[in-house]
Amino acid sequence: MWGGRFSGETDKQVADFTQSIDVDAHLYKYDIAGSIAHAEMLAAQQIIPEKDAEQIISGLKAIQNRIEAGEFQFDPELEDVHMNIESALTDEIGEVGARLHTGRSRNDQIATDERLWLREEIDELMRLVVNLQRALVETAQRFPEAILPGFTHLQHAQPVLWAHHLLAYVEMFERDRERLADCRKRVNRSPLGAGALAGATLPIDREATAGKLGFDSVLQNSMDAVADRDYILELLGALSILAVHWSRISEDIILWASQEFAFVALDDAFCTGSSLMPQKKNPDVAEIARGKTGAVIGALNGMLMTMKGLPLTYNRDLQEDKQGILTALETAKSVLGVFTPMVATMTFRQEPALKAVSDPFLMATDLAEWLVRQGVPFRTAHHRVGGLVKYCERNDRAMNALTLDEMQSIIPEAEEEALSLFDAKKSVNARTVLGGTAPSCVSKQLGAWQQYFAELQ
Ligand code: ARG
Asked: How far is the CA of 436 from the centre of ligand 1 (A)?
């Protein structure tokens, strides 16, 4: 392609080292879509004859068919997807093919291909995230009364509804979807026509190609258009946060499924066994998902490092932008895909959970708040109840088995009613603050999510 300037052959190792076909061949359909839009525009602008554009377009379509039929051999010596297709086009239609690359560079071409590709990937990811959210809502609905300890510092804190805990993740995944949708706006801008870096002397119509390709707008600075990859960084950022969310729910599930907690049972289909220990049923899906978070965050870090300090505009370093995002996308899609049925089939084990939430200390805050209702300042109430906890621990007494006299010896304001607060269900029912865990609040939220998902399509 650049033979005019060179007199010798490219060194074999250099050819291997610089080719990117291994990672960009899958961009063929976006490359061809971009080329078709470009050829139509060249003809409309009378830069090339109409009949040449027609030949180019049918040649490109024929190549696409061959690729999709598995009858196309990508040649690493032709470096990348762009040159492979352009060279195949010339083989297919002869000299006319040489007109396609008018007013265009691989620099604007690759950015165009990537943006078209990532736009589709974002749409697919958003669908997969909704599916997972739906599964979480459905599972929450199957166990509307399930109560378990909520934790802070991984210490028993207060009783909560399992549905409330699951809906916390639905909220997080919703923000992941928002981030993806927001990122899509900036992905969906056209770099095509920016040329190598400075635009063209020919009357290229960038608005026209952008419109044909479904871009929302045209990138206004040709140098920016070919130099930046912030759309990849942004998507990797959104994927990294999504991965952090899936790793946290993985961890919760792993803990819940352990013998120590035993709050949740995973369906056999989503667990694996041990080759040695016959009794084992391991939550490997959640563990692998948690582990794969590393590859996604690693891809973000790698790409940030690749971009850092690059002078404008295009540098070949940018060719290294594909593997990381590809890995991150494949990882996210496979995790979301397997998580959805795993979450949809998990079941709650009320008995161990009930045992855990009947620890009266989980209701210590309820007692402090009861005292507030009797007019005791919260700090005083907190101090008094803390003293009662100490009394119970020292004397090996259960807080819910104290006599009123005993309680009053530590908390003078205590009355009969205070003895009846040590009930997890009552505690949960009373947490009716907006966003609280009371069933009355949670069922409203469940209903709202259901309606929202129903209206999504
Ligand atoms: N394969 C290249 C990439 O992915 C395409 C652009 C190459 N441009 C160039 N001037 N060598 O970035």
From this structure: 53
